Amino acid sequence: MRQSNMLIPTLKEVPADAEIKSHQLLVRGGFIRQIASGVYSFLPMGQRVLRKVEAIIREEMDNIGANEMVMPAMQPAELWKETGRWNNFGPELMRLNDRHDREFALGATHEEVITSIIRDAVKSYKRLPLTVYQFQTKFRDEKRPRFGLMRGREFVMKDAYSFHDSFDSLDQVYQKMYQAYENIFRRCGLNFRAVIADSGAMGGKDTHEFMVLSEVGEDTIAYSDSSEYAANIEMAPVTATSTSEQGELKELKEVATPGKRTMQEVADFLEHPLDKGLKALMFKVDGNLVLVVTRGDHEVNDIKLKNLYKAETVELATEEETKAALGAGFGSLGPVGLPDDMKVVADQAVKSAVNVTCGANKDGYHYVNVNPGRDFKVDSYADLRFIQQGDPSPDGKGTIQFARGIEVGHVFKLGSIYAERMGATVLDEQGKAKTMNMGCYGIGVSRTVAAIVEQYHDERGITWPAHLAPFQVHLLALNMKKTEQKQLAEKIYDSLKTAGVEILFDDRAERAGVKFADSDLIGIPLRITVGKRAGEGYVELKQRATGEQTEIHESELLRQLNNLV
Amino acid sequence: MRQSNMLIPTLKEVPADAEIKSHQLLVRGGFIRQIASGVYSFLPMGQRVLRKVEAIIREEMDNIGANEMVMPAMQPAELWKETGRWNNFGPELMRLNDRHDREFALGATHEEVITSIIRDAVKSYKRLPLTVYQFQTKFRDEKRPRFGLMRGREFVMKDAYSFHDSFDSLDQVYQKMYQAYENIFRRCGLNFRAVIADSGAMGGKDTHEFMVLSEVGEDTIAYSDSSEYAANIEMAPVTATSTSEQGELKELKEVATPGKRTMQEVADFLEHPLDKGLKALMFKVDGNLVLVVTRGDHEVNDIKLKNLYKAETVELATEEETKAALGAGFGSLGPVGLPDDMKVVADQAVKSAVNVTCGANKDGYHYVNVNPGRDFKVDSYADLRFIQQGDPSPDGKGTIQFARGIEVGHVFKLGSIYAERMGATVLDEQGKAKTMNMGCYGIGVSRTVAAIVEQYHDERGITWPAHLAPFQVHLLALNMKKTEQKQLAEKIYDSLKTAGVEILFDDRAERAGVKFADSDLIGIPLRITVGKRAGEGYVELKQRATGEQTEIHESELLRQLNNLV
């Protein structure tokens, strides 16, 4: 393509609202433009990258036998009412009424639509398993759209759905899909981890998120420094340490800790390390008060608490509620001397505590030399805390490190919950109706483009991996008014185009400085510069990512490019 | 693909709401499914066809240097208010509010969005002409969605927009686009005509519609039986006939025509042919009364009337209004003896009328032996009627025939109207701001799929043109329980797949009759049937469209297919 007639509106200035690199560079490089908050157009260069990412995804989906289809954005409210999500999805679900005042959702996801199709179309176990996928625009009215393509309100997803007559069959397809996702993100050149994730509200079973490692990621990943283990921080179990502390049990004493409320303040005041204090927090678990005790250097993981009680809701009690129950506010709670009916659970690390400190349930006082068993009872010990950096990896290999991640993909064993609610059954071998099992699998396609830019850029612009770049070669004629430059550039353009090279030709009447800056910004992997030595047939060939450059005669170009591309 | 694990839910019954063949066959063949009125899913087979049509369009768009991009469906109301279409588009424009109560349109078309992008991105005439296109879902809340993909509320369009610094440049790109559209519809195997169309409300200039000829089309095309001339019926000018009738002017007479109101009733009563009567209709042209006179066998074309007066609105007067103005109701109006201030225009054919009949502006009475000039005055004669079958073609070659057409494409010189309203200018060579000219160009992609089926089907199902078919070869194993059939079919499937043939393998445990019927319905061009002679390696090869069939040894298959595909 000739750059003079292609819509590539590069910008020198960083857009005011663009906080992260991918947002800045995709806007500055003329790849995308915002139309409304969280709503973007893909300009021609952005569209070319998007289509390359899509092609990789399509190939991997086809390889595992998934059927491509496409479902509508307009979805009748009735379908969403069948699963209960019309009410539960909240304000993120965009809604509209048609001219006859019928209610519609704009597809935020397509479980309801695909389940309704499969319910009508598939009647026998013989047609299962069946996996379908689509590339489709999704609409989610995010409260705070930001970071450009990272968190938008209208965005491109690849979503896939599988249907099964047994959980085993779901397991198998889940594994295939997992592998396909690994292939996809590897082919996109991304440094990523598949992490164990929370199966959330819809009652699913296994689920993994595919996280691109990046400082701008909104999630924290706990991963092993010596194995493949990685989990969303909420999901990583903490291994019980078998070592128990030794030492003589000293006498329990109450001490005044005036004005010391936080664990750190108390530890400093009493001159002991943070882990020699016990932290006690009052929770309401499905409405019932529970005192949760952890070591002072640990944080309660409320998802683990919720799972322990198989609870629907878990929330912190208010300070008024703790005062009413225990007679003290947040800074002085502890497990010693509690009313008989107070439930107490403790993190497993508390069990081996010796001569530690805790709140005395009296504002401004703490106990020292507290020892579990002797001084307080615990209804049960369990893994109740967030994993920390330095903890042993749950798989027994290495220790845990933290990283930030951008979620680009998600695979999910939904089980039978949607099929049950929507009455999607097949006849089994005995001719009996059986509720289907389902998996769902998503990739944020436009977000993946942003994640690629987060990992492939330098201070001058984007450094696209070759197979994802909008073009392979960027041809610059530094001065189109000089006949020998213009002629040579046109000759090279024609011959490379004819040879099937994806080439962008900067034929604009701009200054050399502008052309170089734009070229670095756009980030096409190979640049051919036609300049002063055009008369002799010599051009410069430069690799965007490494900066490596050579002078080369135009007759050698094609051979050299074939080596590099 | 194996049919056992592909979503192809064929139906024996014709869906109750499916009136036309394409709707029936696409649903019955498992290509599409309705989710809501006018809202469809493309199932895997439909998606495959859609993608092939898209690929043809993309290739032709790229060939003329158009840039692919993609714009969002969610469009802020502000943009539509700039062009005035937020109010003018009416209930077809779907609207919604986001969580902050900001108003959005769901893209029914993208002139506003692209003009806002180009306005910001393109500042110099040097970047023009610029043509962009997209494949995008469009939303239009049709009053009466029907005919399956023909008239939907959510559908796929390819829309293109070109921007220019001169009308000449627009002319050139319009011609290229016109040619590309001809290529596209020809490559889709369609019998179509490019017809001159109405440039409508937005003040555009030239415009052509691409019409697929079909009895189920909603438009009427007037075309020449001896040339390329074709126009939407509203747009075809009528050639003035130079022959003038001869005859002695008889004496004007008033006759009673009790209860005769229509032209036919009066002609029968007075025993003369229909064309010996004059028809007079009262219109309100921008609110002013005008009596429009045509021959009794002609119909007033209100678009021509509107154009004659360069009017904004043209509507028929009510019977009360005609009584108030002329003293008579609809059945007895005529141009004789009118008040002085009554405007009269007549179709050019009226000029040569001799001794004809017209209403006497007195209910139940007509004049006979009426002669223009002698008996009534006409302010102006003009071409005011619809063209008719048998009229001479406007280009002077042959005579006019009518056909029904499905509009699949539209090319339109918009001129500067959008750019003016949205302030989209470029600096010209002298550095002065200049309003851009624009063209817009649309193809109904999903409708094109339906149009193809209208032209390619027989009583048993669809007969896809080979390059648009979802697969090239349909392999049927008649009885999968017979080892030699299963083995041979599997062998053929593997070898053809390996050879790159797009093959669908009906490996289902269904009866032969079901397989044959489904295969005819789906309409894949070539069918290989593995049946009784499988043991000897012989299969049947049948062409779907012609019914031609041969027995062939499996070792000959690939060579034979290469000849046919």
UniProtKB/TrEMBL annotation, chains A, B:
This is Proline--tRNA ligase. Catalyzes the attachment of proline to tRNA(Pro) in a two-step reaction: proline is first activated by ATP to form Pro-AMP and then transferred to the acceptor end of tRNA(Pro). As ProRS can inadvertently accommodate and process non-cognate amino acids such as alanine and cysteine, to avoid such errors it has two additional distinct editing activities against alanine. One activity is designated as 'pretransfer' editing and involves the tRNA(Pro)-independent hydrolysis of activated Ala-AMP. GO terms for cellular component: cytosol. Belongs to the class-II aminoacyl-tRNA synthetase family. ProS type 1 subfamily. Coiled coil: none annotated. GO terms for biological process: prolyl-tRNA aminoacylation. InterPro entries: aa-tRNA-synt_IIb (IPR002314), aa-tRNA-synth_II (IPR006195), aa-tRNA-synth_II/BPL/LPL (IPR045864), Anticodon-bd (IPR004154), Anticodon-bd_dom_sf (IPR036621), Pro-tRNA-ligase_IIa (IPR002316), Pro-tRNA-synth_IIa_bac-type (IPR004500), Pro-tRNA-Synthase_IIa_type1 (IPR023717). Its main location: cytoplasm. Its EC number is 6.1.1.15. It is an enzyme of class 6 (ligase). The keyword Transit peptide does not apply. The gene is proS. Homodimer. It comes from Sediminibacillus halophilus. It is found in: Cytoplasm.
